[in-house]
Specification:
single chain; 150 residues; alpha+beta; 2 domains; four-stranded antiparallel β-sheet; elongated
Amino acid sequence: MNYIETNLQPGEEIKYVAKLHFFLFVQPIVLLLIGALLASSPKEISAMTHYAGLLILFFGIVSLMQRLLVKIGSAYAVTNKRVILKTGVISRRVVDLVLAKCEGLHVKQSVLGRIFNFGAITVTTGGVTSSYPFIADPLAFRREINTQIG
């Protein structure tokens, strides 16, 4: 059972669950491919290229591990009573917004975000701003919040 289901209030039901987009993994994959390509060059031809490839490969692995932890530790949902935004595996950050008190919800999509249908959601509550990137179909998430509000 995931975080959202275990923390539902009595009479609360999940209306929409947002997912993270696969584009979250594009940057680490590009780093891994470039690093592997450069690291596979023989040391006899260019030792600097080989070692630069190993360094890029290392950063690609670290970035991939970090993004996997983001994917595992994130949960975003809209219920009939509130919006739940949870991130983190070891340390946890949870934002629970009561629908009646939802102040601001901003969706930001780049050109690639519009093409591949992902974006960042920024929530403003009481002067505090929290941003959640790589949300798949962010307009549907916003639409569901607005539907539940009114």
